[in-house]
Amino acid sequence: MRQICATLAALTESARHELLTFDDPAACLGLPIPEPFLELAGTCVRTATERVTTVRQIVPRHALSRVAAADVAGAARLPGRARLTQSIPFKMIVVDRAVAVVPLDLELLYNGLLLIRDPVVVQALVRAHHAWWETGDEVPARTAPPGALPTHLRPVLEALLAGLTDETAAARLGISGRTYSRRVGELLAALGTTSRFRAGAEAARRGWL
Fold first, then answer.
1. Which SS3 state, helix, strand or coil, does residue 105 take?
2. What is the pTM of this model?
3. CA angle, residues 7, 12, 19, in degrees to nearest 5
4. Which helix (H) or strand (E) holds 125?
5. What is the C-alpha radius of gyration for the chain, rounded to an integer number of angstroms?
């Protein structure tokens, strides 16, 4: 699992221009997959949206309703642009049209993944994504209500409350130490404090816990 997590984190961290995905966030429901791995998968894409111009995710229609019914925090909020289709052919991530990741079983990255760098194969996968994208329905971007904790900062708050070091927290979330430090600063600013110690109390007062 560590090797897969490290590979996914490094790959999405390298994205500079475009990130394309086929994803089914409901595929993991009910399966014995460690929570840190599930969190990493979403965090990687959310992190990429901070610096990548184009993020396009294609999700099967049934997925969002299932994760919402299961009360999976944050799973129904898709960063970047997203479209719903009747189905997806397989799970996939394509970074900058240069490298693609496909699960060995085509469904769960947790069970192993295949890195594809052959330009012909990668281009074929990009075309497949484009074809599905054209048939999908746009998912409107969701914004957090005023005063709510921004979704991308919740994992940071949880890491602070757990007493993790910055290095450990960044590794667990699959982001760089610099990105994690920046998010801690953003979280503290949102809480109106410069003290990590007071952050938990202020978050509790606002009902963010």
1. coil
2. 0.65
3. 135
4. helix 119-135
5. 17
